[in-house]
Amino acid sequence: MERKYCPMMEITLPELILLAAYGGDYHLFIESVYATFEKDFILYKPSFRGKSLRLKYHPAFQGKAYTFYHMTHIGNNENDRIPDLRRCERIPFARPVIEKCDNWELKIWPQKRGNKNRLCIWLERQDEPDYFVILDVRDKYILPWTAFVAEYEHQKKKKLKEYQEFIKKQKPPARDSPTVS
After folding, report:
1. Count of alpha carbons within 13 Å of 164, Cβ hemisphere only?
2. Is the separation of the CB atoms in 22 and 33 below 8 Å?
3. How many angstroms separate the CA atoms of 32 and 38, rounded?
4. Which residues are paired to 64 by β-bridges?
5. Would 1 be classed as within a structural domain?
6. Which domain holds residue 115?
7. Where are the beta strands (DSSP E) in 107-157?
8. Whole-number Å distance between alpha carbons of 150 and 142
9. Alpha-carbon span 107 to 101, nearest angstrom
10. Is 31 in contact with 136 (CB distance < 8 Å)?
């Protein structure tokens, strides 16, 4: 069944972590962002639909888990990823989006990336950028893989197209209606 954004549904999210709250001190800011990530994904041990979430730790960078950098930084080369403030600010959203996606009736669909099986969870927000969390599905557990903010309309259109194609495949073919004589 297609899940639709419901503006009347109460979705309560944690506060953003803002660089300004740390007087522009990036080191203090990123330590706070990591502390939230650590609390939500290392100490808490969340799950998704009954399957445990684990983390990819290696290769660790600056003493922080690999997954943390995928959820808060951008770039294709692992050694040259740069912080994305919008991703960092929203790291407190990741765990509730994963754990409450069904209750909040968020759009969720599978994605095939090479030989990887991924799930995309879409948090649509009015008057705020949409937030996506990507999970990597393994046999016995799930890895939070990345998270990002849709900053451009074409990003949302691409994800909407993926979601609509998934929904289309889920619907049974229409039966011919019987004729009445």
Report:
1. 6
2. no
3. 10
4. 61
5. no
6. 19-168
7. 107-113, 116-123, 131-137, 142-149
8. 23
9. 8
10. no
What the block records as the tokens of 87 is: 């991703």
Predicted local distance difference test score (pLDDT) of residue 80? 80
Examine residue 77 and state whether it is found in any structural domain, yes or no: yes
Q: Please count the structural domains in the chain.
A: 1
Calpha distance 54→142 (Å, rounded):
6
Per residue in 5-62, pLDDT (tens digit) is 444 467 899 999 999 999 999 999 999 999 999 999 999 989 999 899 999 877 777 7
Measured in degrees and rounded to the nearest 5, phi and psi for residue 178 equal -70, 145
Is the N-terminal amide bond of 173 cis, ω within 30° of 0? no
Task: Look at residue 60 and tell me if it is in a domain.
Answer: yes
The residue ranges of DSSP E strands in 30-140, in sequence order, are 47-48, 51-52, 73-74, 82-83, 107-113, 116-123, 131-137
pTM for the model stands at: 0.86
Alpha-carbon gap, residue 131 to 151, rounded angstroms: 9
